[in-house]
Amino acid sequence: MESFLNENFGAVKAKNSPDEALQRWRDLCGVVKNPKRRFRFTANLSKRYEAAAMRQSNQEKLRVAVLVSKAAFQFIQGVQFSDYVVPDEVKAAGFGICADELSSIVEGHDLKKLKFHGGVSGIADKLSTSTTAGLTAGSDLMVRRQEIFGINKFTESEARSFWVFVWEAFQDMTLMILGVCAFVSLIVGLAMEGWPKGAHDGLGIVASILLVVFVTATSDYRQSLQFKDLDKEKKKIDIQVTRSGYRHKMSIYDLLPGDIVHLSLGDQVPADGLFVSGFSVVIDESSLTGESEPVMSTAESPFLLSGTKVQDGSCKMMVTTVGMRTQWGKLMATLSEGGDDETPLQVKLNGVATIIGKIGLFFAVVTFAVLVRKMFGRKLLEGTHWSWSGDDALELLEYFAIAVTIVVVAVPEGLPLAVTLSLAFAMKKMMNDKALVRHLAACETMGSATCICSDKTGTLTTNRMTVVKSCICLNVKEVSKAGNASNLCSEIPDSAVKLLLQSIFNNTGGEVVVNKRGKREILGTPTDAALLEFGLSLGGDFQAERNASKIIKVEPFNSTKKQMGVVLELSDGGLRAHCKGASEIVLASCDKVINSNGEAVPLDDASVNHLKVTIESFASEALRTLCLAYKELDNGFSAEDPIPGSGFTCIGIVGIKDPVRPGVKESVALCRSAGITVRMITGDNINTAKAIARECGILTDDGIAIEGPDFREKSLEELHELIPKIQVMARSSPLDKHTLVKHLRTTFDEVVAVTGDGTNDAPALHEADIGLAMGIAGTEFQLTVNVVALIVNFTSACMTGSAPLTAVQLLWVNMIMDTLGALALATEPPNDELMKRTPVGRRGNFITNVMWRNILGQSLYQFLVIWFLQSIGKCVFGLDGSDSDLVLNTLIFNCFVFCQVFNEISSREMEKIDVLEGILDNYVFVLVISCTVFFQIIIIEYLGAFANTTPLTFGQWFFSIFVGFLGMPVAAGLKMIPVDT
């Protein structure tokens, strides 16, 4: 089975799978009872082709637009008068430009139109907004703005109603065939025996079909609601916007044309717009244009497109086009709901369903042939083979219905959906732990991880930073305690304080604002916020410092340079550069330092040693260190020139505390006990990284801590020897992270490395493990039912010429197995024991030896019970008379169902004997089991005419429950048999 799965389904990956492989998969799933159900939450290939075609068309249009805009810029002075006329409804609403004109300007990179409308400032006037204060919130104009320009939301397909899921459940081919059988049975039965007796068999099948359909639809509908909740969480994206003069966070879906949006490194552009102001802005437009080369966004080329990413720099953007009018919106319109590629486990489960479906079809055909042969043999002995009655026709029809129902039971249609449901529940639980995973495949991958490469900030730490120590003018001071900051001001010269505040308040990506409530608020990254808070505690005034000089150049911080710089034009006309960043890097660019007298003196060996010892001291206390420096520049410096990399004067060093998250050390220990190696990758210096890694329990005595520059110098042979021992990588670049992960994949078997994006902490991994484990547990349970149901009906047909389980009974068993069982096992609560399992890689055997042991052992027990009843059941229970066969078959059916009930409980744990622990914590599981038992009683005692059953005695009920319960100690005994994992 594993070789078949790998051969036919191995090409399907968790993402970026070739379309040919996906199509081949769909073609290979030949025994698909209901493709609409099976492929509901997978990629829609036809829509994908449409999206690809549209993306290619967009790429060509944008390439042409960029080329034309470059050419137009050279002849901009020769712009001709445009014939554009403002539509009356736009003019009446108070605007001077319409949505289509705005869209054509930005989408077409049309500099001529932009020039005609007065540039960015002219567009702002026509949109009734301000490039500094933004829109005026709460006015009637906001409502009219929405009506004219629309809202920043993409058109989504309407949520499907419950009845749509009912209709899809009816699309099952085998259920349709059973429906036809039921109709024919109803007609023949009424003709032969009249109403109501002749309708019992047909109506029984119809009722069973309706029950299966509605329960299936209910499960699928609930699953769709789960995904709807997940989609809502995924779309909760906030961005900083200036409105009514106040800068604050708001949802990207509340943006309107005229809004002033603040963009920084890593942000996705939320709407089409125009560059207002900023520095060194580099945009990655590959998502739209297909071009890997990033583009600069400047006042001369101010066009910003929705869906692109800020690769470097920061800026303010004025929104011009929102929602479906943007290029990204048009592209999103072609994407289907649930368009993700299949997860590796879903691929294998569909493969398993296909294989078992073909086996089931074979058994169904053979069973039908055996039953028909036995019938012909009986009629030959009786001499009635030339005379056929309506009863014979009904008997043949029942045999055919049994054969079809065997296919229904054999194909575990719910397997892929069970895993989808399991992973969706896991993702929901992870969101409650503040860990957002956007794709099912990522959730599943995390559940199989053997190595975690974790970021530090915000993942292992709280990402709430505070300056706790400083070394200003060579004077080390603790500043975290109340009053220490003011004491620091009194101990260093005023000139040094002035330089320090100038550096903090100008060389930053953050901002100090007054919110609507009149309270001061600090915006920006945690590092910037910590420095700004430090500057305010020193008595600084953010706005006063900003107004005292003019910023003429900014080189934003990025993970490669490890520093940020600005150039200021001072009030006296001079130019001064400020730099801050990783202490070792910035200090290496300094040749002077401010001493205790406030004078800039040469940086001698003693001062260098003092600063280096201070950096190491701060770092050993798990503090992130930043060095602040400045340099006076010549008046000949141009904004196009790079900021010099040497000749700076060190102002001082600050130590920032970012506390470790509570419970991280315990989580790391839990990962280690599960065979998962945790590595920390950070941009901090090595002493800080080592201190935090030890505090988290990541760095052990036999582990290695290395810096990115040293890592990059190693040869391939050295890397293969070194990487298994690396536990900490400091001063790393994005390239270092990718290189490490790549080598981890080639160094270890079945390694899946999860890089740090805030979703890889231990609780997230734990929930992912739960989802994966519960999906596999459901697989074990369903396969056991498959094996037993096939063998029982097949062997019985061969031995006795009849099938003990009728079509109606098999449909009820199928519902227990396929829908209710999947729902129960998919919603299991977290269990710490699961984290002690050794992870299994995506190329490992799907059905492990442990699963084979449990499936075959439990199947053998259940088969022996039913074989015992078939062989000597009548003798043991003293059954005789005309209804003895009916009573025996009812007893067999009842024992079979209770075996499944107790096996479902045993399947909660594949290796743990105590399967009752925490069972009451899962109300869904308890409810499913209770409903199964309740309806089984109703079917046996009250629905005999429809389900071909008869009421049982107390002793027979006790025996049914006892043999079912006996399956639990059998399962426990099986788990004690050692097997190779």
TrEMBL record:
Q: Name one GO molecular function term.
A: P-type calcium transporter activity
Q: Which residues form the Cation-transporting P-type ATPase N-terminal domain?
A: 116-190
List the catalytic activities from the record. Ca(2+)(in) + ATP + H2O = Ca(2+)(out) + ADP + phosphate + H(+)
Entry keyword Cell membrane: no
PROSITE patterns named among the record's database cross-references? ATPASE_E1_E2
**Where is this chain primarily localised?**
membrane
Q: How does it sit in the membrane?
A: Multi-pass membrane protein
Q: Tell me where it resides.
A: Endomembrane system; Membrane
Q: Which residues cross the membrane?
A: 173-192, 198-218, 355-376, 396-426, 860-880, 886-903, 923-945, 957-977
The EC designation for this entry is 7.2.2.10
InterPro entries with a match to the protein in the record = ATPase_P-typ_cation-transptr_C (IPR006068), ATPase_P-typ_cation-transptr_N (IPR004014), ATPase_P-typ_cyto_dom_N (IPR023299), ATPase_P-typ_P_site (IPR018303), ATPase_P-typ_TM_dom_sf (IPR023298), ATPase_P-typ_transduc_dom_A_sf (IPR008250), ATPase_P-type_domA (IPR059000), Ca_ATPase_N_dom (IPR024750)
Q: List, in alphabetical order, the GO biological process terms annotated in this UniProt record.
A: copper ion transport
What does this protein do, in the record's words?
Catalyzes the hydrolysis of ATP coupled with the transport of calcium.
**Origin: domain of life:** Eukaryota
Among PANTHER family, the record links this protein to: CALCIUM-TRANSPORTING ATPASE 2, PLASMA MEMBRANE-TYPE, CATION TRANSPORTING ATPASE
Family, according to the entry, reads as follows:
Belongs to the cation transport ATPase (P-type) (TC 3.A.3) family. Type IIB subfamily.
UniProt keywords (A-Z) are: ATP-binding, Calcium, Calcium transport, Calmodulin-binding, Copper, Copper transport, Ion transport, Magnesium, Membrane, Metal-binding, Nucleotide-binding, Translocase, Transmembrane, Transmembrane helix, Transport
Know the name of this protein?
A: Calcium-transporting ATPase
Q: Under the cellular component aspect of Gene Ontology, which terms does the record hold?
A: endomembrane system; plasma membrane
Using the record for this protein, list the coiled-coil segments as residue ranges, or answer none: none
